Amino acid sequence: MRLLHTSDWHLGRSFHRVSMLDAQAAFLDHLVATVRERDVDAVLVAGDVYDRAVPPLAAVALFDEALHRLADAGVPTVMISGNHDSARRLGVGAGLLGRAGIHLRTAPAGCGTPVLLADDSGPVACYGLPYLEPALVRNEFQAERTAHETVLAAAMERVRADLAGREAGTRSVVLAHAFVVGGEESDSERDITVGGVAAVPSGVFHGVDYVALGHLHGCQTITERVRYSGSPLAYSFSETDHRKTMWIVDLDAAGAVTAERVACPVPRPLARLRGRLEELLEDPALDHHEESFVEATLTDAVRPADPMARLSARFPHTLHLVFEPERAAQDTTASYAQRLRGRSDQQVAEDFVAHVRGGNGPDDGERAVLRAAFEDVRVDAGVREVAR
């Protein structure tokens, strides 16, 4: 059986205030085309279909269109809710959608009830474990502790109990949305530590043939049978080095796994640039980043004038600017009191400016501003003294 494993669509999400809806639509075009061209038998979507519990209408319309296209392709689709989704909202109409081959698994109570698929080698039981927030599902699973590992282990006990009652040779697939030990995080995932320790060991999934994970945005292999597909699009600059893909997973008659990565469309590459402003503006080696989404870290000792406007003239898709000025080495042998001894307030203030600018002190105009400020303070202090 050939499975297409994807997750973390985050429909409706923007990238530093840039709408990603067109890119998300292009990804869904690619997904449907891959289903048809690669003879996929079932699609697995491991949570975070939407980016937030109440998604924008345009994202809902895109999801609705995707469901119709997958149903028209005649290929069963199994989806679970993630920590960004509203499980109740995503699960509306699940019974009716199931008749069209779109199987939504959003209720914790249904963890042990599989979607039954089949090929020439026999049945495949596909179990959907939606994101399980420990504090909310502890009673459902009669868990002793409010922790992710505890509730996920209890859900997997239901899976194994159901699987044990099925005919010999039934292969098994689990969809789960969790942070599994060994996975590598990025900046765009929402923290799920609230409600208990977030990470769970991969061993909690023992006894099944393939585990399709969602939550972490980098495509990665935890074990040969436990994998993250990652998000199909980059949602933070920490994902600059990610290669966005889906997994095509083949299950043979004995449940052995063969997996292949299928690249997703890249709407615009990401670039993290670092250096002084003039260097970034003049370096010919950066020509290939001129159409990229850019995060620039400026190391100028003195913050340059209009840096965003000047960067955008060369890199029109600059989205994020960071200042990390290079600093000259400081004398750490003298005490703070020793460094201040014999210096006027004006000199101390000028020294501070030089310190934060990596050794570049104020110019004449800035010295005049500091001088005027200290004069105003002295005049104000004198007025208050007279008033007493």
Automatic annotation (TrEMBL):
Keywords carried by this UniProt record: DNA recombination, DNA replication, Endonuclease, Exonuclease, Hydrolase, Nuclease
Residues in Nuclease SbcCD subunit D C-terminal domain copies: 267-355
Record keyword Cytoplasm present: no
Keyword Hydrolase: yes
Single GO term (MF): exonuclease activity
Tree of life domain: Bacteria
Pfam families cross-referenced by the UniProt entry: Metallophos (PF00149), SbcD_C (PF12320)
InterPro entries given in the database record: Calcineurin-like_PHP, DNA_Repair-Maintenance_Comp, Metallo-depent_PP-like, Mre11_N, SbcD, SbcD_C
The Calcineurin-like phosphoesterase domain, residue ranges: 1-218
Family: Belongs to the SbcD family.
NCBIfam families: sbcd
Job of this protein: SbcCD cleaves DNA hairpin structures. These structures can inhibit DNA replication and are intermediates in certain DNA recombination reactions. The complex acts as a 3'->5' double strand exonuclease that can open hairpins. It also has a 5' single-strand endonuclease activity.
Subunit note: Heterodimer of SbcC and SbcD.
Name of the protein: Nuclease SbcCD subunit D
